[in-house]
């Protein structure tokens, strides 16, 4: 991999946001004595989340992500006809820092940092990412959040902001490999701006909490996990490539 900088989406790529979202919905979906459980499956819940989250992002691009998630929670409650409250909505939005990292994330990041600059480009707010960062095991060379930029991916402003931040570090766009799970949030807009991309295809395709896309992009690299990406680089180094 002839790159100097790895930029990462965080939630879905480094953090298992689907498990985090599903876990945080459990008290809500089980019912609290006021309303019965609606019998929503994990796939149904994540699919509904994937439909509502981008709409709220488009409508409120300057809203902090934790507050945006509170609105998504409220919208899910309305769709599922479940009672909620401002406190419950805010608790869901504030849960971001508790979402677990994928098992391979920390070791892979520690290895990759020996060879690349590491940069975060995430649809999150600074406070929430600070809590998440404790689960990742590395200090990133730059952190670019939606709070900093004032818009959410897939808006091209987010990727132009990334390119500008990396340029300030002394690296060209051609030296960046953008690494992400989401085709919708990351690969399509990054490709349009000419960024090289690595798809961490943890789900074996589309679905889950990420909005589906009509036309499949063709990233330069694809791995089933971040650990597999790190291992591929390790083999290249050992082979002297």
Structural description of this entry:
It is a single chain. The chain is an alpha/beta fold and 241 residues long. It has 2 domains: 152 residues, Rossmann fold (3-Layer(aba) Sandwich), CATH 3.40.50.1000; 82 residues, DNA polymerase, domain 1. 47% of the residues lie in helices and 11% in strands. The chain is built from 10 helices and 6 strands; from the N terminus they run βαααααβαβααβαββα. It has a 6-stranded parallel beta sheet, with helices on both faces. The relative contact order is 0.17.
Structural class comes to: alpha/beta
How would you classify the quaternary structure? Answer: single chain
Strand content: 5-15%
Roughly how much helix do the residues carry, as a percent range?
A: 40-55%
CATH architecture of the largest domain: 3-Layer(aba) Sandwich
List the uncertain runs. Answer: none
CATH-level-4 superfamily name of the largest domain: HAD superfamily/HAD-like
What is the spatial order of strands in the main beta sheet? 3-2-1-4-5-6
Query: H/E series, N to C?
Result: EHHHHHEHEHHEHEEH
């Amino acid at each position: 991999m002839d790159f100097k900088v790895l930029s990462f989406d965080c939630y879905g790529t480094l953090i298992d946001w689907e498990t985090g979202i599903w876990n945080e919905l459990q008290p809500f979906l089980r019912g609290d004595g006021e309303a019965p459980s609606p019998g929503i499956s994990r796939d149904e819940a994540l699919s509904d989340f994937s439909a509502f989250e981008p709409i709220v992002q488009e409508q409120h691009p300057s809203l902090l992500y934790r507050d945006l998630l509170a609105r998504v929670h409220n919208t899910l409650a309305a769709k599922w006809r479940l009672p909620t409250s401002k406190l419950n909505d805010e608790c869901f939005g504030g849960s971001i820092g508790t979402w677990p990292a994928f098992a391979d994330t920390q070791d892979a990041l520690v290895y990759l940092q020996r060879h690349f600059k590491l940069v975060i480009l995430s649809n999150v707010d600074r406070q929430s990412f600070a809590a998440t960062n404790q689960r990742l095991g590395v200090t990133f060379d730059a952190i670019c959040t939606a709070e900093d930029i004032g818009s959410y991916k897939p808006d091209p402003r987010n990727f132009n902001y990334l390119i500008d931040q990396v340029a300030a570090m002394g690296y060209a766009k051609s030296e960046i490999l953008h690494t992400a799970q989401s085709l919708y949030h990351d690969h399509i807009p990054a490709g349009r701006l000419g960024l090289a991309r690595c798809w961490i295809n943890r789900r074996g395709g589309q679905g889950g909490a990420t909005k589906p896309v009509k036309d499949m992009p063709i990233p330069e690299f694809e791995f089933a996990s971040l650990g597999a990406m790190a291992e591929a680089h390790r083999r290249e180094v050992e082979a002297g490539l």
